[in-house]
Amino acid sequence: MAAEELTLLTANSRRAPRAAKEPRRGADVGPGAGTALVTRTRPQTRKPNMYRVLLLNDDYTTQEFVVIVLRKYFNKSLEEATRIMLHVHNHGVGECGVYTYEVAETKVTQVMDFARKHQHPLQCIMEKK
Question: Which of 106, 112, 118 is CA-nearest to residue 64?
């Protein structure tokens, strides 16, 4: 008899799980009973603040060096670098590009370090757009 009980238990345990019980009748009767609407709020993302990287004119930095800086750190073509350099020369300031805060800060630091290394007083700044 123990073997028969074991066989029955094993056979019963292999059955597919039963479907969930139906809701009790009469508890919530009517259209939409037992349904709920779940809403999720999406976090709103903002565009990052942008910063202009500017070169300032001085009387000692050569125009060729400014073109080198613009090509090396701002990936400008020779023509575009020359145009920006002439704008800096004629107006005292010129925009090299517009970047997020971290990128702009890095570019300003790189340009300033490169200018100091080559003994030029070139100034590079960033300002919020």
Answer: 118
Other Cβ atoms closer than 10 A to 107 = 20
pLDDT mean by block of 10 residues, the chain; 129 residues: 51 56 58 74 91 97 97 98 98 98 98 98 97
Cβ pair 121, 115 in contact under 8 A: yes
How is the beta sheet containing 93-100 ordered, strand by strand?
Answer: 93-100, 50-56, 123-128
Written as six digits, the tokens of 109 are: 């630091």
Residue 49 neighbours by CB under 8 Å, 6+ apart: 100, 101, 128, 129
**For the whole model, what pTM was predicted?**
0.67
